[in-house]
Amino acid sequence: MKRRPLLAGNWKMHTTVIDACQLAAAIGKCSAGLADRDVLLAPPYTVLSEVAHVLQGSDVLIASQNVCWEAEGAFTGEISPTMIKSAGGTAAIIGHSERRQIFHEDHAIINKRVLGALAFGLIPVFCVGETLEEREGEKTFEILEEQLREGLAGVSLQDMGKTVVAYEPVWAIGTGKTASKEQAQEAHAFIRKLLAEMFEKNIADTVRILYGGSVKPDNVDELMAQTDIDGALVGGAALDADSFCRIINFI
């Protein structure tokens, strides 16, 4: 089944208001007219509304880099689904390896974020991936299954059809290392097979699975040529307009 590619840029903790607006404008310009793929940007919370304003009228999707499960309340430092939507966002990255590794978010809280995003009509970009130690210990599939089953617990068939999954091997994020196209395809195929077991094959066949981990202009074409890789979740290269525009325009 042919799935519509999704190229996502995660800006992480980068860009001031001026930087963000300039970068968003450049990406909006180079993505105009691309009718066969989707582009998504995840700027910091402080510039969500400004980036959405710059891209108003374009087809570029806006996401937050995380999301709380409540509409409001005493959750210092969090951002709610309603805040994201009011700022122009329609999606949220959830379970990114940096949230898991640095901020120690566990399966339970990540699952609450996924369910919360879906309850408020946001598209979850749900991230999974193994560490170098886990890969070298031949535990990759075990870790992926645990993350998928725990993180997607309680998600309905209908909502799974709205969810995006991102495979991001932790050992390849910001390190300059990239999983080979064979390693990436193997992991993506495993994820899709598991989703078919957890939900239904027709749902698994429609879910977009992105690869994240040092995606660059010089490797995006071979990664996107793989059967089960439906897009990319890009970090560092998304902060350079020329680099990200080349990634968006993969062959």
Automatic annotation (TrEMBL):
Cell compartment(s), UniProt: Cytoplasm
Q: Which residues bind substrate?
A: N10, W11, K12, G174, S214, G235, G236
Question: In terms of domain of life, where is this protein from?
Answer: Bacteria
Q: What is its main location?
A: cytoplasm
- Which pathway, per its entry? Carbohydrate degradation; glycolysis; D-glyceraldehyde 3-phosphate from glycerone phosphate: step 1/1; Carbohydrate biosynthesis; gluconeogenesis
Write down any Gene Ontology CC term.
Answer: cytosol
Q: Which reaction is recorded as catalysed by this protein?
A: D-glyceraldehyde 3-phosphate = dihydroxyacetone phosphate
PROSITE patterns on file: TIM_1 (PS00171), TIM_2 (PS51440)
Molecular function GO terms recorded? triose-phosphate isomerase activity
Alphabetical list of Pfam families matching this protein: TIM (PF00121)
**SUPFAM superfamilies, A to Z:** Triosephosphate isomerase (TIM) (SSF51351)
List its EC numbers: 5.3.1.1
Q: Where is the active site?
A: H96 (electrophile), E168 (proton acceptor)
Give UniProt keywords alphabetically: Cytoplasm, Gluconeogenesis, Glycolysis, Isomerase
Q: Any transmembrane segments, and where?
A: none
GO biological process terms on file: gluconeogenesis; glyceraldehyde-3-phosphate biosynthetic process; glycerol catabolic process; glycolytic process
Note the subunit structure.
Answer: Homodimer.
What the record says about family reads: Belongs to the triosephosphate isomerase family.
Q: Which PANTHER family match?
A: TRIOSEPHOSPHATE ISOMERASE
Q: Its function?
A: Involved in the gluconeogenesis. Catalyzes stereospecifically the conversion of dihydroxyacetone phosphate (DHAP) to D-glyceraldehyde-3-phosphate (G3P).
Query: Mind telling me what this protein is named?
Result: Triosephosphate isomerase
User: What organism does this protein naturally occur in?
Assistant: Desulfocapsa sulfexigens (strain DSM 10523 / SB164P1)
